[in-house]
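Task card 7
Instruction: Convert sequence to structure tokens.
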Amino acid sequence: MEQIMLDAHKMQAQGMKQKEIAQALGVTDRTVRNYLCQNPRKRKKPERKSKLDQFKTFIRILVEENPTRNGELIYDRVRAMGYEGKRTVLKEYITQLRKEIATQAVIRFETEPGYQAQVDWVDFGKQNLRGGVVKLYAFTMVLGYSRYPFVKFTTSMKSDQFLSCHQEAFRFFGGVPKEILYDNMKTAWIYDGEIWKPNKRLSAFSFHYSFNLKRCRVRRPETKGKVERFNQYLSGNFFAGLEINNLDLRELNHSVREWIDKIKDKGISGLSESRLTRFTLEKDHLSLLPKTSFDVRDLVVTAVNRESCVVWKTNYYSVPPQLLGKQVVLRPSVDGHYLDVYYADTCLRSIILVQKGSRLRIIDPTDRKAIQTRWEKDRERLQVLRNPKKRTQRAKEISVSIRHPSVYEVLLTGGIL
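Output:
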């Protein structure tokens, strides 16, 4: 029946009339009319199974992770997993996946209140700050639903500064989003040659503040378009209007907070509401801040030298002589103004730092006398070791004191008189 229907449609396409078709096919006019009113079913092509089918999901993950990943490396990996097909079949599939990714439409999406924030750095190049010419950066965090921003200008993008900016942003917003999106910055993600792994310090930080880490795709910066658009606004609106000669970092951060206060009531492009209106709703959906803060400071293990000092940025700082030769942990503040010295998980001292590179020796007054006493004892001990007569006399004194201990020595050792 399907073949007769197909023939009827072919004859109609050739210009034959309904009666002529009926005569040619040996059926009634009514039957031909019914055939012509129906669309012939398309024949289903038999599905051919490919040796690549069971590996396609794995290959898609690899290509979406990094569209520029070498095809030979993918081939080697699937061969190790049991693929026995041709190399050309695999390469054709990889090419198809790359085209899909390249032509995929970027769809604007709205995140739920409190769900996601996007983080980025803006590089403003070398600027003349009070104290000299340095590189200037701006850390930006933008809440996905409200587009409410946080900005912190810094002179460093190191890990301790990066995490400290997060903490300030959380306090500024009054809570923590469920998820934060990053690009491939080293303080967020590490690529081991096969997969991207979260930076260990950021991973521990995210666990402490209970938010998930998310990475935007390689060569797809538009996936964090909300923070990208804000960064352009920050550069073109706020920074472009500054007197950039002799900037002060503290004043700069104060000014950007005032600027955020001004723009919060303006309507968001494409939406009928302002940042403040949407943030008023979003802030109630943010997670609560933990009771304790994460220690974002760097951790440096070092040994106390023979002068009972630790060395930091070419300068020497004294510590109690009891630590001489022992390992201690140094934790510099993010702003570089002071240094905490830890031994056995206890903070022994906070040291105010002098300018790095000064090659100064800073001796704490409380250490000076103790260090001097220690030096005198060491000098006396050294003289005894160097002088055989004194060493023999000292040995006799020790022998006598053991045979005839004083009352004080007996009490100290817990003996019985």
